[in-house]
Amino acid sequence: MKSGLHPPPALWCCPHSVAALLTLEVTCGCHGGGRTGARMNLQPTLTYWSVFFSFGLCIAFLGPTLLDLRCQTQSSLSQITWVFFSQQFCLLLGSCLGGVFKRTLAQSLFALFASSLAISLVFAIIPLCHNVVVLAVVMAVAGLAMGCIDTISNMQLVKIYQKDSAIFLQALHFFVGFGALLSPLIADPFLSDTNCILSNGTANASTNLPHIRKSLVPHHPGNLTHYDLPMKGMVVTRVSYAFWIMALINLPVPIAVFFLLYKERMVPCFNSSSHPLLSADELAMEARPVEKDDLSTSVHRAHAAGGHDDLFSCCQSKNFRGASYTYFAVHITGALVLFMTDGIVGEYSGFIYSYAVEEPLSVVHKVAGYLPSLFWGFITLGRLISIPVSYRMKPATMVFINVIGVLITFLLLLIFSSSVVFLFVGTASLGLFLSSTFPSMLAYTEDILQYKGCATTVLVTGAGIGEMVLQLLVGSIIHDQGSYSFLVCGMIFGGLAFTFYAFLLFFHRMYPKPSTGKKAPALSPYQR
């Protein structure tokens, strides 16, 4: 490997990540400067992938460990579920504000460094939180860090690869799924099998702990209030070890970001030395004579990259001057599609266990506990499959297949609602169809807007709001109307996602086409 192209420390222990990028480098070789672009951006791309692994590690640990954290903080079931809300709300807030740090590459990397380091510190501090309010504040910090990571990593990959960004975004979202699968596996050996607060009269709750753990959903303790979970007594839990292990696993990620900052001479104490030598490909790009069309296109791209901003800056009136109605329509309909699809991910993963154990299916608790894992496992598998598929298929086509697949799956789940076997098949199918929706929609929307709008910030924010709101909405409906309404809600949300996507296709046809001209080779923002 050439000088200056070594993978960051976070991925030295993960050779599959390097192999994945080399595979992407080969598949992108047919796209003009795609192969050269992948080589020039090897280290930044691997770094963004590792940061998104950190995001996935943090997003999935709370559910399995919540009962042990309840014991640690000696709080009630309803009190501890508000820790979920603290994390989710601040994640949404961080997603809205993440665009603030995109103005320069240095700001983006320093924000990613601070966010990934904050996640490691949060993992290390959680075992020291013996008050539920303190724990909620710590999780709020984690949520802000996760939101910044979500927005900045997506923005930077879109900025680097633009037309070729779809395949790299698919890989990015595979890593968040991989992290989300890994953290519950790390936590599982340290979870309490019996009540972790020793007191008299807790036998009923102790025998139902696995059921309670799988039924916990943000803001919806559901029918769990009749279980007598003590708040006082001797705390017996080993969950602290799980958090310390995750803190150590995540520690190479901020080191990788710092290594990239150092390589780019952005660390104040180390920026006096000369710039590293260019590789052969980079030297050829630098030596290539710049034509007038290429220069204008490069200037246009630099201006386009400036279109990404935080949500509040995007809403300033100066950004709307001269914009057509289709400009707003593309942002809104794209965000609404992800509002529905990410909302489905949140509500399905949150309530599928509760739906399965109740009538008419009445699945055994232990068997039903595999359903959320099956759902997330197929989401991760689908994201892995989507990496090569996105090279052959346009993002618009992938989104169309996804929303149609979600709609048909919910329809079949309703038709075969009494079949336990089809519930497992439908859960796996739904995970596959939902897996690539977000990165494909992001690539498609940015392509429509010619990388000049606020698509990344708006879409990330819309997806985050949908995940929160639809989970709350479905929880309330299930409580009032019964478990069957769970599938009906999914069918309605899938239908709305398809409808909004049809509107997006219509507005795409109406959107002003870019002026034709000679295509400039892809230049890395690290070389501009």
UniProtKB/TrEMBL annotation:
Membrane-traversing stretches: 46-67, 79-101, 108-126, 132-153, 165-186, 241-262, 327-355, 367-385, 397-416, 422-444, 456-478, 484-507
Question: What keywords appear on the UniProt entry?
Answer: Membrane, Signal, Transmembrane, Transmembrane helix
Instruction: Look up the domain of life of the source.
Output: Eukaryota
Q: Which CDD domains match?
A: MFS_MFSD4A
**GO cellular component entries:** membrane
InterPro entries, per the entry: MFS_trans_sf
UniProt signal peptide:
1-20
Stored SUPFAM superfamilies:
MFS general substrate transporter
Membrane topology annotation: Multi-pass membrane protein
Which locations, inside or outside the cell, does it occupy?
Membrane
Could you say which protein family the record assigns here? Belongs to the major facilitator superfamily.
Name assigned to this protein? Major facilitator superfamily domain containing 4A
